[in-house]
Specification:
By secondary structure, the chain is mainly alpha-helical. It has two domains: 11-123, no CATH class; 139-201. The chain contains eight helices and four strands; from the N terminus they run αββαααββαααα. A hairpin with a 5-residue loop joins strand 3 (139-141) and strand 4 (147-149). Helix 5 packs antiparallel against helix 6 (170-177) and helix 6 (170-177) crosses helix 7. The protein is elongated.
C-alpha cells in the first residue's frame, strides 16, 4: 500500500493561525508584519523560513497549523532536537543567539541538545543495570545486557602482564598479542582487579 502523501499547511495559514498569540506573548508588538513578509516566529527577524514541528512527528505530532511554527534556518537548527515542553521552554525564553554574551554557534547548540539526550539515555541504561560506554579488552556484553569476563581474553591479559614483568616493551607486547599499543599499555600498567572493577562500573 502506497504511503499517504503528507499535506503541509501553507505559510499564510500558519501565520494567520498564530499571529494573535505571538503578539499576546510578546513576540511581536503589532500585527504589521503578518501579511507581506516572511519572518521567524522565534527571533522575529525577516528571513526565509521553514516549517518546524512543535511536537516531533515521531512523537505523534501532526502537520496541523497548531503544531507548526515558521522558523529561520538558525532558530530551526537550534530547536531541532527539542519537542513539546522543551521546545516551548526554548521558544518562550529564547532564542538567544542574537543577544550579547549568548551562545551564537548553532552547531554548539545542536551538539548541546544532542548531548543532553545522550546523557539521559545513558542514565536510563545505567538505572537498568545495562553497560554504557566502550567495552574494554577482556570483557563482553552478555545476553542480560551486563558485562562479563571473556576467559580467553583474560588469559591473554595475564600473559601480557607476565611479559611486562620480565621486561618486554609495550610495543613488543602489543605486537605479540595483536592489540593496540594504548590497549597494551593500559593492561600492563593497571592492576587486574582494578581492570575488572572499572569494566563493571561503566
Amino acid at each position: 500500500m502506497a504511503e499517504r502523501k503528507r499535506k503541509m499547511q501553507s505559510k499564510a495559514n500558519i501565520k494567520k493561525h498564530w499571529v494573535d498569540r505571538l503578539v499576546e506573548i510578546g513576540k511581536f508588538n503589532s500585527l504589521d508584519k503578518t501579511d507581506k513578509v516572511d519572518y521567524c516566529f522565534a527571533c522575529g527577524f525577516i528571513a526565509d523560513t521553514t516549517r518546524a514541528h512543535i511536537w516531533a512527528r515521531g512523537e505523534g505530532g501532526e502537520d496541523s497549523c497548531e503544531n507548526i511554527h515558521l522558523l529561520c534556518d538558525r532558530c530551526h537548527a537550534m530547536s531541532e532536537m527539542l519537542s513539546g515542553g522543551e521546545y516551548w521552554e526554548w521558544f518562550i525564553h529564547g532564542p538567544f543567539w542574537f543577544a550579547p554574551n549568548a551562545v551564537s554557534d548553532v552547531g554548539e547548540m545542536a551538539k548541546n541538545a544532542t548531548s543532553k539526550r545522550t546523557r539521559e539515555a545513558l542514565a536510563r541504561k545505567k538505572a537498568n543495570g545495562e553497560h554504557c560506554g566502550r567495552i574494554p579488552f577482556g570483557f563482553a556484553i552478555g545476553a542480560d545486557g551486563k558485562i562479563h569476563e571473556v576467559p580467553e581474553q583474560m588469559k591473554t591479559i595475564i600473559a601480557m602482564k607476565r611479559m611486562h614483568g620480565i621486561g618486554a616493551s609495550v610495543r613488543a607486547i602489543a605486537a605479540k598479542h595483536g592489540v593496540s599499543k594504548s590497549t597494551a599499555h593500559k593492561i600492563v600498567t593497571t592492576d587486574l582487579r582494578l581492570l575488572k572493577k572499572n569494566a563493571s562500573s561503566k
